[in-house]
């Protein structure tokens, strides 16, 4: 997608320097646009943990390149196999909820396992990361194709009047490599001339909605309005939301959806108001080993400072201010799990399916 009219992916190999991977530093958006170099596995770990990159598909692709960067630092030795496994464990420990991370690491481990030399393993890891990146782009494009008819249908029922779509967090191209998951059908609908408007939940505490989704939509010229997180219920009661589309960090085999904290409450409000609640995700986000997302999906807890302070743009620099008494304790749960029964359907690269185990399994 575009930034100031120029096409970008969220991650790429540095021109004329295949030993460096580059990313857009998302901590600074929308205030500053900065490209960061990742040269080591530690850089990849930090980029994921400190949320220079974030969003389930992009976390996975960054981890795959992290394995490649880690291999560049290894020498032939009798302990090589264990060192590679340690690298994968290290990267896996960066963030717990998005299952795309483990998916990507397992994929690289499997692809390099047959190679004999370190040189061959390094080349295969690089190829695998590039292929995963290309696949995630294509998956998001297909999610757009498969989700588009859902928007088109509402537009037709409203005789071409604006379709109002609510989204939470950032499940846009910045969370993926291109197109996004929740945003892919939105971008396609806009491209095809359907009138749309997006309600963007600000998404405290990190404000991925206000800072990233609004930024993306603005850059692409999509009409949108940022709302405080608790506004969606009122808008739904007043008939101002036609559908909800969110992304997911991990979805269990029975269709329970882990996504940014606050998603569950939007699903409850949507159900109470008979508004369709869709989750857009690539199959790399489905955890086939888990059948009860509420009990089994690990929920990341992050630093209390993310809640205690708010970050914004003041006096030409990014600034933080404290929002509460200094000594008040804070809890910062990063994600919640929406039970499958509140999800109208999943929009995937393989098609749209209801959230029951059998239908989801048929996508494989
Ligand atoms: O903590 P984040 O910013 O990594 O959380 C991201 C989200 O919750 C997204 O909505 C989710 O990963 C879907 S991304 C296509």
Fold blueprint:
Elements: E1 2-3, E2 6-7, E3 11-14, E4 17-24, E5 35-38, H1 41-49, H2 56-72, H3 80-92, H4 100-112, H5 118-157, E6 163-167, H6 183-191, E7 196-201, H7 208-220, E8 224-227, H8 232-237, E9 243-246, E10 250-252, E11 257-260, H9 263-272, E12 277-280, E13 286-287, H10 293-296, H11 305-308, E14 309-314, E15 317-322, E16 335-338, E17 345-348, E18 351-353, H12 357-361
5-S-methyl-1-O-phosphono-5-thio-D-ribulose binds at residues 54-57, 98, 169, 171, 175-176, 181, 208, 247-249, 259-260, 334.
Shape: globular
Strand order of the largest sheet: 8-7-6-9-12-17-18
The number of distinct β-strands equals 18
Q: Write out the distinct hetero groups bound to the structure.
A: 5-S-methyl-1-O-phosphono-5-thio-D-ribulose
Largest sheet: 7 strands, mixed
CATH-wise, what's the superfamily of the largest domain?
Translation initiation factor eif-2b, domain 2
Q: How big is the Rg?
A: 20 Å
Relative strand content = 15-25%
Question: Could you explain the architecture of this structure?
Answer:
Helix content is 39%, strand content 21%. Strand 7, helix 7 (208-220) and strand 8 (224-227) form a beta-alpha-beta unit. Strands 8-7-6-9-12-17-18 form a 7-stranded mixed beta sheet. It has a 4-stranded mixed beta sheet with strand order 13-10-11-16, covered by helices on one side. Helix 2 runs antiparallel to helix 3 (80-92). It is built from 12 helices and 18 strands. It is globular and about 65 Å long. The chain has 364 residues and is α/β, with parallel strands linked by helices. It has 2 domains: 2-135, translation initiation factor eif-2b, domain 1 (Four Helix Bundle (Hemerythrin (Met), subunit A)); 144-361, 3-Layer(aba) Sandwich (Rossmann fold), CATH 3.40.50.10470. The structure holds 5-S-methyl-1-O-phosphono-5-thio-D-ribulose. 5-S-methyl-1-O-phosphono-5-thio-D-ribulose is lined by residues 54-57, 98, 169, 171, 175-176, 181, 208, 247-249, 259-260, 334.
């Amino acid at each position: 997608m575009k930034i100031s009219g120029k096409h970008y992916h969220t991650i790429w190999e540095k021109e004329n320097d295949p030993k460096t991977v580059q990313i857009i530093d998302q901590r600074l958006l929308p205030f500053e646009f900065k490209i960061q170099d990742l040269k080591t596995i530690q850089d990849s770990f930090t980029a994921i943990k400190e949320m220079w990159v974030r969003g389930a598909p992009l976390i996975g692709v960054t981890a795959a390149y992290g394995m490649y960067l880690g291999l560049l630092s290894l020498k032939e030795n009798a302990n090589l196999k264990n060192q590679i496994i340690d690298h994968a464990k290290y990267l896996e420990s960066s963030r717990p909820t998005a299952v795309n991370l483990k998916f990507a690491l397992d994929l690289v481990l499997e692809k390099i396992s047959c190679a004999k030399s370190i040189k061959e393993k390094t080349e295969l890891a690089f190829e695998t990361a590039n292929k995963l990146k290309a696949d995630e782009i294509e998956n998001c494009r297909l999610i757009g194709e498969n989700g588009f008819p859902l928007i088109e249908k509402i537009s037709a029922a409203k005789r071409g009047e604006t379709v109002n779509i609510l989204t939470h967090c950032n499940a846009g191209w910045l969370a993926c490599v291109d197109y996004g998951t929740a945003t892919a059908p939105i971008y396609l609908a806009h491209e095809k001339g359907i009138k749309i408007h997006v309600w963007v939940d600000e998404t405290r505490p990190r404000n991925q909605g206000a800072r990233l989704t609004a930024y993306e939509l603005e850059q692409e010229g999509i009409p949108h309005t940022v709302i405080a997180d608790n506004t969606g219920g009122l808008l739904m009661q007043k008939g101002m939301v036609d559908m909800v589309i969110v992304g997911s960090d991990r979805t269990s085999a029975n269709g329970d959806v882990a996504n940014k904290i606050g998603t569950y409450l939007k699903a409850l409000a949507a159900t109470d108001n008979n508004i369709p609640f869709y989750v857009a995700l690539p199959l790399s986000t489905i955890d086939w080993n888990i059948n009860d997302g509420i009990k089994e999906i690990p929920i990341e807890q992050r630093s209390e400072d993310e809640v205690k302070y708010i970050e914004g743009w003041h006096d030409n620099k990014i600034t933080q201010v404290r929002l509460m008494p200094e000594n008040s304790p804070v809890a910062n749960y990063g994600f919640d799990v929406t039970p499958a029964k509140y999800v109208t359907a999943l929009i995937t690269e393989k098609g749209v399916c209801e959230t029951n185990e059998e239908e989801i399994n048929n996508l494989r």
